[in-house]
Amino acid sequence: MRPDALTVEIRARTHWEAIDLGLALIQTYWRNLYAAWCVVVLPPAFLAMMLTYLFGVNSYGTLLIWWLKPVYDRALLHVLSRAVFGETVTWRDVLRTLPHLVRHSGLFRALTWRRLMPSRSFELPIWQLEGVAGQARRRRLRVLKRYGNGATRLFFVCDILEMVLFLGMLGLFFMMLPPEFAPSRADTFFDFFTADKRPLWLDAAYCLVYLFVISIVEPFYVAAGFTLYLNRRTELEGWDIELGFRTLAARLEAQQISS
Amino acid sequence: MPLLDTVRTIETPEGVSIRLRLAGPVPRALAWLFDFFIPYSVLLAASGFLIALDSFGFGIQMIGAFLLTWFYPVLFEVYAQGATPGKKMLGLAVLQDDGVPVGWSASVARNLLRFVDFLPLLYAFGLCSMFLNRDFKRLGDIVAKTIVVHRDKPGLPQKLPPGRASPPPVWLSSSEQQLIVAFAARVPRMTPDRAQELAQILDSESGQDNRRHSRAALRADVDSLIGYARHIVGER
């Protein structure tokens, strides 16, 4: 791992700045990221639609999309971790590496008892990229989580952002809906979505809105977790100092040769 | 291609370049949350007394809510270095695009447009705008030509580990001196191996031979570098 090969500026940042860098990463590499995103998200989304169609209960489909987030995270991190070294990952590459990612990144644990862990995206690089296991991984996690990390607040805010966008988009949807389509006696926004007799398309719309929302927030959550991880390693391993020392050494050497 | 960063460099007319570290949606959302809850909880507490005044108290309450909504952010941004209490808590500040403090017209414009950013519910449009804009601007920032920046510096350790101060044998620029001090201060948090590895970088190959002939090389081990750092910060 050579910090000077990164396409991201290495300097000591606050947690907040590291999180903001995650957004800058998405803004730069959104094409590859969203190509990978579509590869992993569309099949579960299709399945969710089928569930909605068969059972007519929106929560099953939405739950499935929510539960599989760790799978999407792995594809996103795969793209990001290559992108910061200037490599482009196409959706075909993602499809090809997906079986490997499923087997070698602790996915089973991530989908079961670690599913609700707030620092999920911060810890993902250790599981997926560092290739350590067992005792060594536990030690790594302990070292990187010492002295505080911004992972929990990132999770907290991303959760809020998700809720905000979800309510916002549902609100927008409701505002745009012609009155003759609304189920009878839906007086308020919430009545409308909790009514007993909903048309089927409404369940599907609910699911799609959720899909749209996580398409915005989840890549950010993963990217910001990754930049927090990079920031933590910069701090602990002195990457910024390494780069500075290399420049200094080069200057001293040039000076000695000329004198 | 320049390295990816959230810093914008601005050149002043005097030829000085300043680095502004842009703030994104996460710290700003939290700052807003504080700015929402602090003044309105004060108002809510006050309403306990105002309720005794019946409809007159209710009127006062409404006027208070109006003033808080429209003038609380503007007054703080203009008179408190661009930071409302929530922004101050998160170490943020509002500036004009060119780095000067935010003025009345810009602050009023960006806070009036909050209502557009708020649509359709809870700042969903503002959030989308920040995701799409390279400078993390919400719609109000785009119209008012303002940015929100970080004031806080990273909280890295500043205390130097113990050692004997000794002057560095070569001339070092001020940024190079800072670098050595930063290294020394961070040694306690690194593994000894990694600290030694970093120190070794300064030990260039030609430096190895030259050290015997001339004194014009830094001794590249952790303890010597800590010694230099202590000298640089003024210890003798």
Report on the structure:
The complex is a heterodimer of chains A (259) and B (236). Chain A is mostly helical and 259 residues long. Chain A has one domain (12-234). Helices cover 75% and strands 0% of the residues of chain A. Chain A has eleven helices and no strands. Chain A has helices at residues 15-55, 58-67, 69-83, 91-103, 107-111, 120-128, 134-145, 151-176, 189-194, 200-237, 239-258. The radius of gyration of chain A is 22 Å and the shape is elongated. The mean pLDDT of chain A is 83. In chain B, helix 1 (25-50) runs antiparallel to helix 2, helix 2 packs across helix 4 and helix 8 (174-186) packs across helix 11 (222-232). Chain B has helices at 25-50, 54-79, 85-89, 104-112, 114-118, 124-132, 139-144, 174-186, 192-201, 205-213, 222-232; strands at residues 7-11, 17-21, 92-96, 146-150. In chain B, the strands form two sheets. Chain B has a two-stranded antiparallel ribbon. A two-stranded antiparallel ribbon of chain B has the order 3-4. Helix content of chain B is 55%, strand content 8%. By secondary structure, chain B is mainly alpha-helical. Chain B is built from eleven helices and four strands; from the N terminus they run ββαααβααααβαααα. Chain B is elongated. Chains A and B meet through helix 1, helix 8, helix 10 and helix 11 of A and helix 1, helix 6, helix 8, helix 9 and helix 10 of B.
